[in-house]
């Protein structure tokens, strides 16, 4: 059984904001970043919650200079944004807001962002977009940690892809990484001394490993063999359009691309929402292989978890909680 503490949303938010302030983020940035992390924890993604503050703190880019986020190329329906070395939780949030504004005004928008890192869950930004009544597609590339099919050295990031659709109620969100396990999950397991499942990763010598620390030195497999590898490759290529190679001259780096549009450019939104509802109901009605496990609809589990955890609290591994408190205490003593 995991040694953990349970925090209310208010307590988790206070802890997150104080820890981020302790490592150099201002009040506005700390609030935006913490809101994302707490929501990830509410949705049941423990590794994507408050533990990410420790990863942000350990990342050398956090100590490097930051410059204002700026648009470096723009048309009515597009923008390429220099993230100024701001952490992705903040910079990508700003890019998503820009995409929403442009799509509301011009009905479609394509926004790319580079010179940023560590952006969290695609689903968070896609929910913002869908709740604005828009359809969104979001892809993100990163520095190499994932193996190409047949390769013994990392070539891709975990390279998630996501889709967000308005429904009139909770949005319909599809969000998946192209790796067998997300890097954040591997990092959390390394902090807690928890092994990886067999077949997840190799070490720096190309040998299969269940040690997460060794996996971070080697590489993580894609999901689905060559199919996951091809998808990761395609996302890495798409993110060149978002400026991946502009920050440090590497074609294997962080970048983020949004394609956002009003469904009305193709059909009346009400008609689309009705059709999407029928599609979801048709999939839900498929007889399950296991009577105890109904067919799973993307995003529904996360929304159920969020509702439940708002009442019951958020579990945080004690080792993570103690390290966050230590960050705050060290800053207080300076």
> Would you identify the regions where 5 or more consecutive residues have pLDDT less than 50?
none
- Strand runs, count: 12
Q: How far do the termini sit from each other? A: 36 Å
Biggest sheet record: 7 strands, mixed
Biggest sheet, spatial arrangement of strands: 2-3-4-11-5-6-7
| Count of separate DSSP helical elements | 11
Question: What amount of the residues lies in strands?
Answer: 15-25%
Task: Describe, in plain words, how this protein is organized in 3D.
42% of the residues lie in helices and 19% in strands. It has 334 residues and is α+β, with helices and mostly antiparallel strands. The mean pLDDT is 97.
Ordered list of secondary-structure elements with their pairings:
Elements: E1 4-7, H1 9-22, H2 27-42, H3 51-58, E2 70-75, E3 78-87, H4 88-106, E4 108-117, H5 122-131, E5 135-141, E6 161-165, E7 172-176, H6 183-192, E8 201-202, E9 208-209, H7 212-217, E10 219-220, H8 226-238, E11 255-261, H9 269-284, H10 300-312, E12 314-317, H11 318-333
Parallel strand pairs: 3-4
Antiparallel strand pairs: 1-12, 2-3, 4-11, 5-6, 5-11, 6-7, 8-9, 8-10
For the structure shown, list the relevant keywords.
alpha+beta, 7-stranded mixed β-sheet, 3-stranded antiparallel β-sheet
Task: Sum this structure up briefly.
The chain has helices at residues 9-22, 27-42, 51-58, 88-106, 122-131, 183-192, 212-217, 226-238, 269-284, 300-312, 318-333, and strands at residues 4-7, 70-75, 78-87, 108-117, 135-141, 161-165, 172-176, 201-202, 208-209, 219-220, 255-261, 314-317. It is an alpha+beta fold.
């Amino acid at each position: 059984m995991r040694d953990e503490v349970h925090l209310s949303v208010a307590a988790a938010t206070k802890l997150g904001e104080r820890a981020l302030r302790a490592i150099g983020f201002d009040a506005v940035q700390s609030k935006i970043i913490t809101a994302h992390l707490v929501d990830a924890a509410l949705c049941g993604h423990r590794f994507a919650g408050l533990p990410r503050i420790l990863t942000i703190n350990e990342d050398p880019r956090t100590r490097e200079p930051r410059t204002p986020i700026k648009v470096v190329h723009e048309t009515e329906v597009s923008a390429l944004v220099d993230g100024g070395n701001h952490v992705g939780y903040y910079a990508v949030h700003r890019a998503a807001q820009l995409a929403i504004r442009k799509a509301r005004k011009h009905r479609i928008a394509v926004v790319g962002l580079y010179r940023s890192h560590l952006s969290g869950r695609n689903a968070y930004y896609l929910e913002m977009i869908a709740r604005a009544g828009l359809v969104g597609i979001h892809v993100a590339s990163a520095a190499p940690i994932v193996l190409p099919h047949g390769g013994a050295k990392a070539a891709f990031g975990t390279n998630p892809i996501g889709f967000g659709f308005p429904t009139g109620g909770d949005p319909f969100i599809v969000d998946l990484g192209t790796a067998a396990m997300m890097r954040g999950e591997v990092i959390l397991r390394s902090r807690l001394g928890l092994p990886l499942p067999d077949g997840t990763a190799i070490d720096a010598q190309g040998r299969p490993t269940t040690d997460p620390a060794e996996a971070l030195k080697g590489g993580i497999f894609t999901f689905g063999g060559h199919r996951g590898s091809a998808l990761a490759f395609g996302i890495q290529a798409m993110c060149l359009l978002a400026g991946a190679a502009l920050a440090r001259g590497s074609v294997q780096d962080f970048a983020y691309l949004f394609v956002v549009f009003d469904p009305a450019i193709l059909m009346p939104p009400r008609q689309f929402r009705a059709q999407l509802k029928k599609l979801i109901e048709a999939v839900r009605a498929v007889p399950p292989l296991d009577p105890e496990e109904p067919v799973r609809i993307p995003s529904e589990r996360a929304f159920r978890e969020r509702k439940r955890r708002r009442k019951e609290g958020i579990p945080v591994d004690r080792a993570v909680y103690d390290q966050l408190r230590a960050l705050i205490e060290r800053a207080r003593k300076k």
